[in-house]
């Protein structure tokens, strides 16, 4: 199979979907890899690094999409990339379709088979391709939130860890999954007074052990959150429902309970955001203010640390890329039910139920859709 790696064109995105190690794995298995010129530059990977492992460098995205059968990316395709997709393409990337009807309809119209990293599951129902970026985003969330608390950035002017004689800032983490756990770890490390909220009591018990009792674990009832909001300086939203729109855990009305200059960091923004007042921002313009509360809602947070993120992501995705290239999408999906859950769009139809429900569309089964896709 011929695998294509285009340059990411989302605003302030510096990651790349394949490292030279990935190229080597594919070429050793008898596949061809084409990489857009300078696609790895933002991650400190040169064209020569790719060529040394057998990749062919192409001048632009048109050439990559024109030659490749499988397109491997990091972020959801932008409008210009959707326009390049053809029915014979297999697209493998983050998609986050539930809050984005325009992208969903564009992919349906393309006829391409589109597999989303974020809905692929392992045998235990975990999300192996989302986890590495969740780890990065969780750590960045606290780091970025602490920075935005500084007065010149619009925040209250509080130091997260305090100093002797001055109390530490209070940090509320809503969601005890991978993002929330990593956010809490960094908050504890920065000596913030940390509270982690979740609705799963068993998960809260696990967090007590994982965090060695250094954070308070709280059941995430509406009342409990409201009672804590007047105290906290930084809130990190880390709520995830597999493949679906994120629920709102803080409303516009509840912002009135918070201190002026407090900071909200919405790590769920790719799935529509978990604060009612959230909308996506960029690294170039990361924050805005609503009712005196600073909102940080960057939609590709891990893109700020591309050297770490690129390698963390590709370590996880590479076995799946190789499997798809070796077997083709039909056999790979048939052999791996968790990979089948990653198929979100195929043959012009939505094949992932939470996306269909979020958009009010009629979905079809993966098997039914793939029966319309020629084997290759």
Q: Helices and strands: which structural class?
A: alpha/beta
Choose one word for the global shape: globular
The whole-number mean of residue pLDDT values reads: 97
Let me know the number of strands. Answer: 15
Strand order of the largest sheet: 3-2-1-4-5-6-14-15
Task: Provide the CATH architecture of the largest domain.
Answer: 3-Layer(aba) Sandwich
Summarize the structure in words.
This protein is an alpha/beta fold. It has two domains: 183 residues, NAD(P)-binding Rossmann-like Domain (Rossmann fold, 3-Layer(aba) Sandwich); 174 residues, Rossmann fold (3-Layer(aba) Sandwich), CATH 3.40.50. Helices cover 34% and strands 16% of the residues. The chain has 13 helices and 15 strands. The strands form two sheets. Strands 3-2-1-4-5-6-14-15 form an eight-stranded mixed β-sheet, sandwiched between helices. The protein has a seven-stranded mixed β-sheet with strand order 9-8-7-10-11-13-12, with helices on both faces. Strand 1, helix 1 and strand 2 form a beta-alpha-beta unit. The longest helix is centred in the C-terminal third of the chain and has 30 residues. The protein is globular and about 65 Å long. It starts with a strand and ends in a 6-residue tail after the last helix. The model has no long low-confidence stretch (mean pLDDT 97).
